[in-house]
Every structure is written in structure tokens, then in C-alpha cells.
Amino acid sequence: MSMFCFQCQETARNNGCTVRGVCGKDESTAKTQDLLVHVLKGISLHARAASAAGAQVPTDVGRFVAECLFSTITNVDFDSAHLSQLVGQALEVRAQLRSLYQGKGPTHDSATWTGAPEDYLAKAAAVGVLSTENEDQRSLRELLVYGLKGISAYADHAAVLGLEDPAIYEFLFEALASTTEDLSVDEMVALVLKAGEIGVTTMALLDRANTETYGNPELSEVQLGVGSRPGILVSGHDLKDLEELL
């Protein structure tokens, strides 16, 4: 099996894409995304250790983790070279966090492994989704991770508009770190449910960011016909991007 990706509802045979993604994702992209998530878990472990030691974890670390998780959602970033750059940046961020505290740090592979870009794909093959052998544990871990990706998408859009909530980033650290531990089913289910709560909090933050920036939505008449020229659909979450183009 050259790749395994099942992060969307369109996976081959509703099981997982193993040759090429139905979305067009190739093996290199899928594996680099897996490695990026792996290193983000290491960042989270070090963030937790730094906080426990009384160090202040910079807000931009949480923002970086959210941006990286967002980049692994289907159709967001299929640029393997850029994803590889993010892995390199994640390793640097992890090292910066480690320097914030003294004493023994976390020993999980995600917190200690380091390598050059030419090592990334080989490493990714060993730390992907299927590296968790127990299917129940794997399912709950991945359900949590995909919930975190959704939270991160909303958090990133809110941050673009100038609003952030450190508590959201703290939960990203807590939840990602938990996927490196042998928790009970009840503990994992509790984290999944908490992810749902944080998701609602994050959506409220994004709603506030949008209304404070652009005002409350109003009913408006729009043209429904087809024009003679190509158009670009811009969602409500990307109005800032459109604004910068005007």
C-alpha cells in the first residue's frame, strides 16, 4: 500500500484511498500531511511540558499549529513542497518550545524525531494513520484529529480577521498530545465530545470576527443568471482575501 487517506467522505470504496486520492491527492502529499500532523503532536507535547514548568507558550505557536492542521484538510493544500516546508518549520517551532524549559522532555517519537527533507517520506510511511494498530483506538484518535482540523479552519479564519482565543489553542495542544497516549475509551470519547464543544466556541469566535469586521448579514437581492464571463465563488470565510484583491 503506497498511501492511505480517509479524511473525507469521498474515499475509494468508503474505506480509504490507497493509490491516489479521489480528490487528486498523490502519495507524496498524503504522506507529507501525515508527517506534519505527527510533528504537530510533538509540538503539543512540548507545549504542555513548557506550561507545566511555568513557561509561557507564545500565542503564535498555537496559531501555527492551527494553520498547519488547516493545511491538511482535503483540497486546502496539495503542494507537497509547501507542506514539506511546513514540516521543517514545525521542527523549528518544536525546538524553540523545548528551549523554554529545563529537565526531561517528552520521549514520544513525535517529540524527539528530527530529519532532513529527504528523510520525510520514509518517516511518514511509519507514522501515518495505520501506525495505530488497534482499530478502535485508531478510530477515536482520528475522529479527534479530524475534529481538530475543523476547529483549526475556523480558528484560522478568525485569526485572519484579528480575533484569537488562547483557550482554543490550548485545547489543540491537549487533544493532539492525547493521541500519543494510551487512554481508555471513555477518556478518548470525552475528548471527542470536548472537541465538539470547542468547535462551537470557535464558530462563535469566527461569527464575531465576521460581524465586527463586515457587520451583520442582511438579506440582499443577487443575480441568479449565468453571465458570459467566468466567475469565482468566494465563501463568507474568505471575504478578507477578496477585500485584499479589490
Task: Describe what this molecule looks like in 3D.
This protein has 246 residues and is mostly helical. It has one domain: Substrate Binding Domain Of Dnak, Chain:A, Domain 2 (Up-down Bundle), CATH 1.20.1270.20. The protein is built from nine helices and no strands. The radius of gyration is 19 Å and the shape is globular.
List key phrases describing it.
single chain; 246 residues; mainly alpha; Substrate Binding Domain Of Dnak, Chain:A, Domain 2
Task: Compute the average pLDDT.
Answer: 92
Instruction: Provide the succession of SSEs.
Output: HHHHHHHHH
The low-pLDDT segments are: none
What structural class do helix, strand and pairing data support?
mainly alpha
Task: State the end-to-end distance.
Answer: 46 Å
Secondary-structure arrangement, i.e. CATH architecture:
Up-down Bundle
CATH class: Mainly Alpha
Instruction: Tell me the helix content.
Output: 55-70%
Radius of gyration based on Cα positions: 19 Å
Number of domains: 1
User: The CATH topology is what?
Assistant: Substrate Binding Domain Of Dnak, Chain:A, Domain 2
Beta-strand percentage range: under 5%
Q: Write down the overall geometry.
A: globular
Report the count of strand segments. Answer: 0
Number of DSSP helices? 9
User: How can the largest sheet be summarized?
Assistant: none
